[in-house]
Amino acid sequence: MWPVTRVGFVGLGSQGGPMARRIVDGGFPLTVWARRASSVEPFAGTATTVAGTPAELGAASDVVGICVVSDDDVTDVLLRPDGVLAGMAPSGLIMIHSTVHPVTCQRIAETAAARGVAVIDAPVSGGGPAAAERRLLVMAGGADEDVARARPVLETFANPLLHLGPLGAGQVAKLLNNFVFTAQVGLALDTFAFADRLGIDRAAAAAVLASGTGGSRAAAILAASGFNTTGLRGAEPLLRKDVRLTLEVAAARGADAPAAVTALAQDTLTTLAGPVSAS
What we know:
Blueprint: E1 7-10, H1 16-25, E2 30-33, E3 48-50, H2 54-59, E4 63-66, H3 71-79, H4 84-87, E5 93-96, H5 102-113, E6 118-121, E7 124-125, H6 128-132, E8 136-141, H7 144-154, E9 158-165, H8 169-198, H9 202-211, H10 217-224, H11 230-234, H12 236-252, H13 259-273
Parallel strand pairs: 1-2, 1-4, 2-3, 4-5, 5-6, 8-9
Antiparallel strand pairs: 7-8
Protein name: 6-phosphogluconate dehydrogenase
Keywords: NAD, Oxidoreductase
Pfam families: NAD_binding_11, NAD_binding_2
């Protein structure tokens, strides 16, 4: 069994920051790198080292988590000349937490394999608060031995941790989750607008849905915000990216996308990108 002693982490935003904090609080020596000095300030006073470059982080780490935004960001931080992979020793392990195309993970894994470094995809769902409370859903894809090696690190913030199959399987599952969530946001918006027309108070309708069979995570999130769509509107570019990736994966695999869910998801994106309703 591989001993996991040194962990690196790149991507200290609202999602990655709490994940990295759970890792260091779990007793793992942690090395971080960030473009902005402010991103590493919360780790002052912990057993965390700040690297000067991603390659320096790679050299100081046995296992590295990547939680940046896009496919291009993941590829850049790992494969650029001073990227993480340039510094990692053979037998290292990279965990891709970002939501990206499965092919991106496979391309990175091919490059990493030439250096003796393994890759798993381990995208997450639940948000920063879930990571801080060790209840983040982690969807892992990769070889059994690689996921087993990553497990002690992942379990500092994951519950549940699901190993879904070979490399890329975690990304497919995460894209499916985000695709359905996007559709459910539109359904929730329509539902609460319909409640208005029926003369039902929105908060009362939300309470019914929370305990009834018609509820959804999207409806709960919307109700918890006081029916303020600002946060969801801010997330629209990420939701749009994930819907696009879902449909690309489906097309590449010859799988017909579900018409009703696709229509709802596209309608959600149009609504969130449009003007704020006066209602």
